[in-house]
Design goal:
The protein has 382 residues and is an alpha/beta fold. The protein is built from 18 helices and 15 strands. This is Glycosyl transferase group 1.
């Protein structure tokens, strides 16, 4: 394999940039087909690299027209990796690519068991279901999957759960990791900086549980701390967060939010300077009208942030992890437990012990090892 195409159609920057970073470790010609706005985020050394070429999708342009425009360039690649593909199934079901094709699976129920996990809770949901039915999405999704050479999940535990649902004829590769561990010295800020990474949305984050815990902790803090929600809080999905901030007038916990999408550089900077992370996930979330379960059918990007930056994290008990990653976490099952652990971590800085104890185990996720494993997986597409 000499030339690889990475096709990203939904601005899923974390996965795309993670793959580019790892593939640049190898002697490959990498062609990226992705939205133009993502290109502006590329690090300077990537821009200068002769290994990397970028083909931009203009804002507002359709996916079929974008793929058709660059079909000749895509067909010059030995392997075509669709890093995200969640629409235009009828179009892709009719496509034939010269190279081998691989689809990365982000949402397992959405691809392999949508009928069994649809829940309609509103008139808008009913319209979504009707549009999907009229487009024959389920029929064309199956045809598209049959048209691919292979798929890969992004987590081994999720693959174990979902592999029985994968249709016959579609090869399932070993789980594909796109994040590696970067070893840095633990941070100890004054005041303490806690970060909630990723999407700021009440549909995926349990803000009620979080603020019930924060209210308990706030009453016992000696010194102020900073809590940063590291995502775009300028959307309707974030409104419940601001209602809870108004309801709970916290005195010692200073909350910071952003009303825009953070750049890759800014997002990384906040993570690097965090003392520890807090990820108040809901166990079940919706993707459109299909229900998914964190850690069972879909991953949280916050887990990859924890790994890449080697940060300790407070995490719900339901989320399964690799043992080396689990060593970085403290698990909670309710607001009272989260409050107790927060107080311990803030007052006794227990998170520093977690980081120090986990470092040796995390070396299995070194850049060299993850890059080698990635190439092994990609080379196995038949």
């Amino acid at each position: 394999m000499k030339t690889i195409a990475l096709v990203e159609l939904q601005e899923h920057q974390e996965v795309l940039f993670g793959l580019i970073d790892l593939l640049l470790e190898h002697q490959l010609d990498i062609k990226v087909f992705a939205p133009a706005q993502m290109q502006a985020e590329l690090p300077l050394d990537w821009v200068k690299s002769e290994k990397l070429s970028w083909f931009s999708k203009s804002p507002g342009g359709s996916i079929p027209s974008f793929i058709t425009r660059y079909k000749a360039q895509i067909d010059r690649c030995d392997l075509v990796v669709f890093t995200t593909l969640v629409s235009d199934f009828a179009f892709f079901a009719r496509q034939s690519f010269h190279g081998k094709t691989l689809l990365l699976i982000h949402k397992g129920h959405f691809f392999f068991a949508p009928h069994q996990h649809v829940q309609l809770r509103s008139f808008k949901d009913g319209l979504r279901w009707l549009r999907s039915t009229l487009r024959r999405d389920n029929f064309w999704r199956k045809k598209m999957l049959h048209n691919l050479d292979a798929c890969a999940f992004l987590d081994a535990a999720i693959q174990t759960n979902l592999q029985p649902l994968v249709p016959d004829g579609l090869s399932v590769l070993p789980a594909l990791r796109f994040t590696y561990y970067t070893q840095d010295a633990p941070v100890a800020n004054i005041p303490l900086r806690l970060v909630v990474p990723g999407t700021v949305s009440a549909s995926t984050r349990d803000f009620d549980l979080l603020f019930a815990a924060l209210a308990q902790v706030d009453a016992h803090l000696v010194s102020p701390i900073t809590l940063i929600f590291l995502g775009n809080a300028g959307t309707s999905s974030a409104r419940p967060l601001f209602k809870l901030m108004a309801k709970h007038q916290l005195q010692k916990i200073n909350i910071q939010t952003f009303s825009y999408v953070l750049s890759h550089v800014e997002y990384t900077s906040h993570l690097q300077s965090a003392d520890f992370l807090l990820l108040p996930l809901r166990e079940e979330i919706r993707f459109g009208i299909v229900w998914e379960r964190y850690g069972k059918t879909t991953i949280s990007g916050g887990i990859n942030d924890m790994l890449h930056f080697g940060k300790a994290m407070l995490l719900p008990a339901f989320y399964p992890l690799h043992p080396a990653l689990d060593a970085l976490t403290q698990r909670y099952s309710n607001a009272d437990e989260l409050a107790d652990f927060l107080q311990e971590w803030v007052h006794q800085r227990i998170y520093l012990d977690r980081v120090n104890q986990a470092q040796n185990g995390l070396l299995v996720f070194s850049k060299e090892q993850v890059a080698a494993q990635l190439m092994k997986v990609l080379s196995s597409v038949k």
